[in-house]
Structures are given as C-alpha cells and as structure tokens.
Design a protein that fits this description.
Blueprint lengths: L5 H14 L3 H5 L2 H20 L5 H8 L3 H7 L3 H24 L5 H18 L2 H8 L7 H28 L8 H10 L2 H10 L4 H21 L2
Length: 224
C-alpha cells in the first residue's frame, strides 16, 4: 500500500469531512482508502489532461499498480465518470449554499455569479470537454453523467432566476425573459468565451452580468 504524505493525509481528511465520510471507518478499510486515493488522482489528471487519461496514468499518479486500480474500478470510463461526478456534486453543493445566502440583492447576486464563474473557470479540462460533448460521442458512463450534469444545470438556472427575481423586488412568477437571460449569462460556455476567448477578467465579467441582470429585473418589475 502506498505511503501517504502529510499533504495527502490532510487533503484526504478535508475531502472526507466535506463528503460526510466517517474518517475512522475509512482508515480501518484499506480498500476504501485506496479508492479515495485513485479518485483524487483521476480528478487531478482529468483536470489537467482531459477525458482521454488512461488507467496507466491514473495508477502511476495514485502510486498503485494498474491491476490494483482495476480491482477497485470495473473500467476506465467508470472510474473517470465517478471522479467527475464528485466535481458535479461539489458544484451543486456550492450553488445551494450561495443561493440560500440571505445577503442583500446586489451582494447576493455578485457573490453568486462570482462563485459560478470561478467554478466554471477552474473545473478543469475534462469538465469542459464533457460539457461541450454530445452524449452520443461519449462512453455510456460519461454520457449518463453529462445528462445528470445538464439536468442539474437547467434546474439550478431556474432556481437562480426565481431567486434573483424575488430578491430584486419582482412580484409574482419570474418572467421567461429573466430565466432566459440567466441561462445565457451563467452558462459555462459564456464563462469560457468571455474569460478565455476575450481575455476579460472574472471580476469584469461578473460586473457585466450583474449589471445586465439587475437592469433587466428592474425593467421587467416596473412593467408589471
């Protein structure tokens, strides 16, 4: 079994805490500890190299043999999907916390959009490739994850639009145009284009989105 460095041990402890895992039980189960190590290695590699990472690369990064990794995971696709699923879950949990914040509207919206753009920008190469892929072009496990990711994003977009509408003073149901504007401005593709293609910093991109959504919400509210 590979030797854990102090950094590995600390990071593993934090991950277990955030995931609600019983650390004592995990330490008594070498197989579960090895799975955690492999998943962490896969996430790091996928973020850097993308969806094409191999079992050999993951095994080397996790300091395990290829055979040991296959004992823990049925296939490369299953392993990569499980590693990326953790990123999707972390993303969703972060959004829930940001949406439920009780800050004033302008602070709430700025903080929420900032967290969204930061998550999009730092999620790594594999998540971008997953987002930009057609399900038919992906292995079954990754296609299933992509559908879940997309369904979650659609649901969160509407929740964000409804919350922004009411926090911004809107009455009644959120107008479709506000929902559509949220979908257009908080998309991963928007972050990628504005920040990476145009070289606009996240702070400027956030300010632009907050201004657009705020004016639209106030305009639609005044029209009712």
């Amino acid at each position: 079994m590979p030797i854990l460095t102090p950094y590995d041990a600390l990071q593993g402890t934090v991950e277990c805490y955030l995931a609600g895992v019983d650390l004592d039980a995990l330490l008594d189960d070498p197989k579960s500890l090895s799975r955690l190590r492999v998943l962490r290695a896969a996430r790091r590699l996928a973020a850097d190299k993308g969806l094409s990472i191999s079992m050999e690369e993951i095994a080397v990064a996790a300091e395990l043999s290829r055979r040991s990794v296959f004992r823990l995971f049925d296939s490369r696709d299953s392993l990569v999907a499980q590693a990326l699923a953790q990123i999707v879950d972390d993303y969703d949990e972060t959004l829930v916390a940001a949406i439920e914040s009780s800050e004033p509207f302008d602070v709430w919206l700025t903080n929420l959009i900032t967290r969204l753009y930061e998550l999009h920008h730092t999620s790594g190469k594999a998540m971008w490739q997953l987002t930009a892929s057609d399900d038919d072009d992906l292995p079954a496990e990754l296609a299933a994850l992509n559908r879940r990711r997309r369904d979650n994003r659609h649901a969160f977009t509407q929740v964000i639009a409804d919350a922004a509408w009411h926090k911004g003073g809107g009455q009644g149901s959120c107008p479709p145009i506000v929902s559509d504007a949220c979908a257009a401005t908080i998309s991963t593709f928007t972050t990628r284009s504005v920040v990476d293609d145009y070289g606009i910093g996240i702070d400027r991109a956030v300010a632009c989105t907050v201004t657009l959504l705020t004016h639209l919400i106030h305009h639609e509210g005044a029209a009712r």
